[in-house]
From TrEMBL:
GO terms for molecular function: catalytic activity. This is Uncharacterized protein. PROSITE patterns: HIT_2 (PS51084). It comes from Loigolactobacillus backii. It comes from the Bacteria. InterPro entries: HIT-like, HIT-like_sf. It holds the Pfam family HIT.
Length: 98
């Protein structure tokens, strides 16, 4: 399958089942994406283990960004439909606000 997210290895933070990296098109300073390492199309198809891994990584990413940029808040975005990435690979977007 020709999925760029499946081939991704340059994670800033990662655990066994999920990885986090800076967005190529940041909406704000420190805009990061968190993805399952396996190809999963949307949130409801995640296994409990993948969900737990992503949850842990959201927490670690937030901590990392808190130290690096001190944002005042975050928006967590889980797009269900995205016409840019094909084939669709789930990502969770952690967008810091200032
Ligand atoms: Zn993929």
């Amino acid at each position: 399958m020709d999925c760029t997210y499946c081939q991704r290895e340059d994670f800033v933070l990662e655990n066994k089942l999920a990885g986090a990296f800076f967005s190529d098109k940041p909406r704000a300073k420190g805009d990061m994406l968190i993805i399952p390492k396996a190809h999963v199309e949307n949130f409801v198809k995640l296994s409990p283990k993948q969900k737990a891994a992503i949850d842990q990584l959201i927490f670690l990413t937030k901590k990392y960004l808190d130290q690096k940029y001190q944002p005042s808040h975050y928006n967590l975005v889980v797009p269900e439909e995205d016409k840019i990435t094909a084939p669709k690979h789930l990502y969770i977007n952690l967008v810091p606000g200032y």
